[in-house]
Amino acid sequence: MIADTVEYDADDYRPISTLAVLSLIAGCTSVLALINQILWVVPLLAVGLSIAAIRDTSVQGSQKSGRGVALIGLALSVGFGVQSITVFSGNTLIDRSRARETISRWHRVIQAGDWDVVYGFCAPGIIPLDETYLKERNQDEHHHDGAGSRKQYEIKALQKIPAIRALAACNQIMFSSIEADNQQFSGSLRVTVDVSECKQHSENGLPRVIEIWLNHKTQNEPQVGQSPAALQAVERWQVIRVNPSE
């Protein structure tokens, strides 16, 4: 009688599906999709493995178990996949909103002629130093402050850029597009501004469409009204390039 019971248990045993185990592992690793868009392929593969595992364990007469494991893998892959898309879409909307706000504020200070503030929106070195600047600096004995002289040079150069003059001449700008541009500047946003409807242009040669590249970084700054040791994370947006659109 004991022998008959052992034989029955052995016949009833079903090994767990390899696909089910792989789908669970893939479902857990789908969390990587939250890091980078390229890794969105992980939850897609996990979903495919989970569906294959569910079929493998649900076929009538199947000798494999693990359908519950496959369902858990499917739930994880779908959950992390949807979450990654939601997070990315939300961050994209926030970044575009802040880029629009930055350009609008920059345009207002350009119109106001507050060039120190205009320069403050720009990343260091936005205007490359040419031979004329270096020659004038060597000839002028009053250029003791290298940083100050470079700032004044770059402000004057900014004022001469046709795109900047077009922004200064236009009371209202229109945003044509805001999109990521990792080809020219990694992690930057390219903002296309249309000033073709403006009637205030004093020069016929001023551009009507302007492209502005923005980049942002997070840095720690002292909190207002707090002790010097108290810091807060502040996101800074900077203009890294501006030129007429081709």
Descriptive overview:
Helix content is 51%, strand content 17%. With 246 residues, it is of the alpha+beta class. The chain has two domains: 12-90; 94-244. Strands 1-2-3-4 form a four-stranded antiparallel beta sheet. A hairpin with an 8-residue loop joins strand 3 (209-222) and strand 4 (231-244). Helix 2 packs antiparallel against helix 3 (41-58) and helix 4 (67-112) packs across helix 8 (162-169). The longest helix has 46 residues, at 67-112.
SSE layout:
Elements lengths: L1 H11 L5 H12 L11 H18 L8 H46 L2 H6 L10 H9 L6 H15 L1 H8 L4 E8 L6 E7 L14 E14 L8 E14 L2
Antiparallel strand pairs: 1-2, 2-3, 3-4
* Cross-sheet strand order for the largest sheet: 1-2-3-4
- Terminus-to-terminus distance: 89 Å
Helix content: 40-55%
Strand residue percentage: 15-25%
Q: Major sheet, described briefly?
A: 4 strands, antiparallel
Low-confidence stretches: 1-8
The assigned structural class equals alpha+beta
Radius of gyration: 30 Å
> Using DSSP, what is the number of strands?
4
Compressed to H and E, one letter per element, the order equals HHHHHHHHEEEE
Tally of individual domains: 2
Nearest-integer average pLDDT:
80
The number of helices is: 8
User: What would the principal axes of the Cα set say about the shape?
Assistant: elongated
